[in-house]
Amino acid sequence: MAVQTNMKVQITRCIVGLLLIGLCNLGRSQSYSNSLCLPVGYTFGFFNGVWNTPRQAADGLVALRDLTGTSYKSEPIQYETFYNTTGSVSGATGLEDVAEVFKQRAHEIDSSGELESRFEFFWESLSGEKTFSQRVINFYPSAGLLFEQLYTQITSKLMDAIAYLSSHPPTEANYASHNTRLSTLALQRQKLILVAHSQGNLFANHAYDFIVAKIGAGSVKVVHVAPASPTLRGDDALAFIDLVINGLRIQGATSVPPTNISVSELPASLSDASGHTLVGTYLDPSRGGRTRVKSLIDVALDALKTPVPSANSTGSVGSFTITLTWDGTGDVDLHTVEPNGAHSFYGSRAGKVGYLDVDNIVGLGPEHYYASCDAAVLQTGIYHVGINNYARATGRKATVQVSTSNGGTLGTRTLDVGPERGSSGDATPVQVMNIAVSKDPMTAKFSFSVH
Amino acid sequence: MRIYQAFVGLCVTLSLNACGSGSSSESPLPPAGNNAPAIKSAVEAIRAADSAGSLPKLNRDATVAGVDADKNGVRDDLDAYIATLPDTPAQKAALVQMAFAINNALTADTADQSALLAASKLIANAAACSHARYDTVTASKKGAEIEKLAVNTKTRFQAYNKFSAALNGTTFVLPQGDGCAN
């Protein structure tokens, strides 16, 4: 075993040496007229707020893109949502409890059951946007106070949820997919700006702490908007009128930063009575919060430096990439078998299409395979992805994630690494997933899917 | 608990009072004639609003998908509602795209990760398209409106909530262009 490990180290050193003189770098230094890859630049990661649906999270990110633009200093900014929900139970979001509150209060307003059956009123009570509610109140003004009580109770539930999440933070397993994605972006030398709203700040703090250890504080910055977190990793914007975050302070369940946007700069508005939503309050063009957030983002972007490459820690962008991480020490290997039969792994890094450009024999990973950005080189067909517990990793959980250059994450699998098998497992790694690459004969456009 | 509930209640009330009556730009009075019977309950108000056309006429059957006779991936009642709006054809197309994306999410197989991520990509594209065809604030409001109309029953809420929970911990990117399908 020691001999095998030593040989592996020697091979690794050889490959690293070749990498350093540029002989093995298939992608980074080459440009293709028909490139399938975006150039290196900035990744704008957005960590959404409490009880955001995926649409609301996407909407917030697009609004931030409207604010920030698609490039900075002539480099592209890629926008990516790091989606998180509020629930404390796997498979739930916590929103079920709020729906029950809605039903109970709606029944008090209307005992016939008609109001509680109309969930568009639930969404209004959650967002504070009252178009349809107001139309009903117009016909029956006496219901106005009851609706206000409904909004108040929902807002209280919102604070409860944030306070609970703060005192019962997600587990490492909840973060695994985000961490692997961050690892991929970091080793591909993307500069990272992480912008968080509301509960998303709890996730952004964890993301920062994870990735800053890998790339340094110069290459990742955080901007906190309406932070629900007791601690900060960057500058923040918190409005005096924010009822949710300031309610948390009064509640005393969790500490939050002091406000720094005055009511004169960001006055209350009926468009968002909570004073808390990202687009309705902090990015509202008619009030001052937007300028403040823009300023914080500009400062963060300006301060960002490209991660400094180091031996065996820099990977190339690919038309698609595969990243392997695991949750402790040991040596787990990534194996990719291309449609042509070429097997890319630590013992034979170069395939016909791609290359294993990052190998890790110590612990945590990452290992990284990238497929060529050249449309003339990329092959259609099935790419088989596997892992092997080479040494000292028994009992670890591995996360394997596939991403494309311009489409983000295609799929993530987390699995046990299996028993230690040394090099005897190289020929029969544990199957993790298949990547199907196809090409439209009419448009010549490639498609990628994970199975 | 009671302290901050009181705080929130007070602040909501103050914020509403500070801005006037608390109503939106709409008239606070119903568009009923003098001879209209007095409305004495919330359900009567809802039905009156329905009759006056103040609330959209929505499908509320027991299914998640609802009725989609033209098979365009959007419930017919949502198609009809969008068609009545004064927005431009390009803007309406963006709203139809959003309705399609949400309906796709409602019916996605949450055990199929590829399907989940494809559904999230459709939503991201639809959000980007809305912002390309409206200003930021209007785009957000329009997206929220389509979402609340599409997820308008408990059954649909439960399906949507399941979809959201399944996406927890994932990432999805915005399209490079405007994301518009049409």
Offer a concise description of the structure.
The complex is a heterodimer of chains A (451) and B (182). Chain A is α+β, with helices and mostly antiparallel strands and 451 residues long.
**Helical coverage of chain A, percent range:** 25-40%
- Looking at the structure, what is the overall shape of chain B? globular
Strand content of chain B is under 5%
Q: How many strands of chain B? A: 1
User: Structural class, from helix and strand content of chain A?
Assistant: alpha+beta
Radius of gyration of chain B: 19 Å
Strand content of chain A: 15-25%
| Annotation, overall tally of beta strands of chain A | 16
H/E topology pattern of chain A:
HEHEEHHHHHHEHEEHHHEEEEEEEEEE
Taken from the alpha-carbon principal axes, the silhouette of chain A is elongated
Biggest sheet of chain B, in brief? none
> Could you spell the SSE succession of chain B in H and E letters?
HHHHHHHE
The oligomeric state of the chains shown is heterodimer
- Helical content of chain B stands at 55-70%
> How many whole angstroms does the radius of gyration of chain A measure?
25 Å
* Tally of helical runs of chain B: 7
- What is the distance, rounded to the nearest whole angstrom, between the alpha carbons of the first and last residues of chain B? 49 Å
Detail the poorly predicted runs of chain B.
Answer: 1-30
Largest interface chains and counts: A-B, 99 and 91 residues
Helix- and strand-based class of chain B? Answer: mainly alpha
Key structural traits:
heterodimer; A: 451 residues; alpha+beta; six-stranded mixed beta sheet; five-stranded antiparallel beta sheet; 12 helices; disordered N terminus; B: 182 residues; mainly alpha; 7 helices; 57% helix
Structure, explained:
By secondary structure, chain A is an alpha+beta fold. Chain A has helices spanning 2-20, 54-68, 95-109, 114-117, 119-127, 131-139, 143-167, 172-187, 200-215, 243-251, 278-282, 289-303; strands at residues 42-47, 71-72, 75-82, 191-197, 220-225, 235-237, 320-326, 331-337, 343-344, 354-358, 367-371, 381-391, 397-404, 408-416, 430-439, 446-450. In chain A, 35% of the residues lie in helices and 22% in strands. A 6-stranded mixed sheet of chain A has the order 2-3-1-4-5-6, sandwiched between helices. In chain A, strands 10-11-7-13-14 form a 5-stranded antiparallel sheet, with helices on one face. In chain A, a hairpin with a 5-residue loop joins β8 (331-337) and β9. Chain A starts with a helix and ends with a strand. Chain B has 182 residues and is mostly helical. Chain B is built from 7 helices and 1 strand; from the N terminus they run αααααααβ. Classes of the chains: A alpha+beta (451), B mainly alpha (182). At the A-B interface, α2, β3, α3, α4 and α5 of A face α1, α2, α4, α5 and α6 of B. β3 of chain A pairs antiparallel with β1 of chain B, so a sheet runs across the interface.
